Amino acid sequence: MTMRAGLIGHPLGHSISPAIFAAAFAAAGVDATYEAWDTEPDVLAARVEALRGDGFLGASVTIPFKEAVVPMLDTTEAAAKTSGAVNTIAHQDGKLVGHNTDVAGFARSLKDDAGFDASGKRCVLLGAGGAARAVGLALVEAGASVIYVVGRQPRRVEGVVLSLKALTRPGTTISWAYWGDGSFLRALAEADLVVNCTPVGTAGSSTAGQSPIDAKLIGENSTVFDLVYNPSPTPLVAAAQARGAKAVGGLGMLVYQAAEQLKLWTGKDADVAVMLKAANEALAG
Q1: Per-residue pLDDT tens for 63-114?
Q2: Which of 12, 109, 255, 280 is the most buried (most CB within 10 A)?
Q3: Which of 66, 111, 165, 268 is catalytic?
Q4: Cis peptide preceding 231, ω within 30 of 0
């Protein structure tokens, strides 16, 4: 039987995940397909419930559902439980298990692609959704000295901050700021690392061509990591690089977390080089 997996989110016009997984499944010798399931919020529960069918491996979950799917699952593993966000659903023996491979994917890309060691560093997260929760957890585990969470919705910012504070180790401080206020501006100017965890700038979206912040607010010695991967470079990455800052997009993170998903669904190791090649070809195409 040809198995099925797919991406749950809305909107999905920008996604290159189907191309990445087509290459990954072929390289691993797995008889499976991967589809983009653009899902309106009112049918999310039905979409998730359908994954219990015998022909499903599971699903990837993206904006805006990484937190919303949690109560629809039978259980969550450690990183998903700790972060409060799920980006991967695995169908295991009739049960739906939530995982978060964004944590490992971000950590690997931050090290391998950005060449950044977060230990003892000051970090700013733009956004307070599921992606910010995963990135925050990765930075806590890496030993960042300060993690600033920035957002426009006070209750969401507070939720991320409280969840991260419960995980902090000695030497790590979790703080917050509202978008555009004085604390926000100071945090950006002093940051060693700025991570865009919002979808602003995504190709094909209402914010295409935009940057979430003015790159002039970022220190020239800062590192910028934009989770957005399409287009490449993103408006934020291009502006930061023009200012002299080191900046990378989210393509590496996308592929690394997808490799973790393949392992969860099939038990097989992914050929990351094949997946990266497919990702770059899809972006160029």
Answers
A1: 999 999 999 999 999 999 999 999 999 999 889 999 999 999 999 999 999 9
A2: 255
A3: 66
A4: yes
Q: For residue 227, is it within any domain?
A: yes
Strand partners, 96: 91
Give the C-alpha separation, 125 to 22, whole Å.
32
- Model's pTM, two decimal places? 0.95
Question: How many separate domains does the chain show?
Answer: 2
Our separate counts of H helices and E strands in the chain read: 10, 12
By residue range, what is the domain housing residue 22? 3-100+252-284
pLDDT level of residue 257 (50, 70, 90 thresholds): very high
| 268 occurs within a structural domain | yes
Beta pairing class for 223-226 and 193-196 = parallel
The verdict on 8 and 88 lying in the same domain is yes
Question: Does residue 268 have an active-site annotation?
Answer: no
User: Per residue in 255-269, is it b (16+ CB within 10 Å) or e — as a string?
Assistant: bbbbbbbbebbbeee
Vertex 230, ends 100 and 64: CA angle to 5°?
A: 45
Tell me which residue of 162, 197, 190 sits closest to 176, measured CA to CA. Answer: 162
Distance CA 284, CA 154 (A): 38
Q: Which two tokens stand for residue 254?
A: 């996308």
d(CA 216, CA 222): 11
Do the domain assignments include residue 107?
no
Element of type H or E holding 256: helix 251-266
Residues 119, 215, single domain; the answer is yes
Same domain, 94 and 122: no
| 117 contacts: CB under 8 Å, gap ≥ 6 | 111, 142
